[in-house]
Amino acid sequence: AFAPVTAAATFGSSGRNILSGPGVWNTDMSISRTFPIRENLKFEFRTEFYNLPNTSHFNNPDVASVSDSNFMQITSSYGERNIRFAGRFSW
């Protein structure tokens, strides 16, 4: 189906945008709670979760060259789970 291009400045007979990478599914969540200490003194605690279910996000496959040994293979991923905590005093 794929072969190296032999003539310069030719693109072959394949269609445009026929190669696609894996999709990305991401879920983020934030939880916050405000604690009143006095009438005009408050403390807010906040937690943020990025990529909550820790789903792998794969990069697009290597399509640079048909003769490459990694052609159409996914060789890396990104997107580990991150958790952030924050506290804030308001007066």
In short:
The chain is mainly beta and 91 residues long. The protein contains no helices and five strands.
Write the SSE topology.
Blueprint: E1 29-38, E2 41-50, E3 57-58, E4 77-78, E5 82-90
Antiparallel strand pairs: 1-2, 2-5, 3-4
Explain what this protein looks like in three dimensions.
The protein is mostly beta strands. Helix content is 0%, strand content 36%. It has strands spanning 29-38, 41-50, 57-58, 77-78, 82-90. A 3-stranded antiparallel beta sheet has the order 1-2-5, with no helix packed on it. Strand 1 (29-38) and strand 2 (41-50) form a beta hairpin. It is rod-shaped, with a radius of gyration of 24 Å.
What integer value in Å does the Rg equal? 24 Å
**Secondary-structure element order, N to C:** EEEEE
Portion in helices: under 10%
Structural class: mainly beta
From the spread of the alpha carbons, the general shape counts as rod-shaped
Q: Which strand order do you get reading across the main beta sheet? A: 1-2-5
Strand content: 35-45%
List segments where confidence is low: pLDDT < 50 over at least 5 consecutive residues.
Answer: none
Find the count of extended strands (DSSP E, 2+ residues). Answer: 5
Sheet with most strands: 3 strands, antiparallel
- Separation of the first and last Cα atoms: 68 Å
Mean pLDDT: 85
SS element count, helices: 0
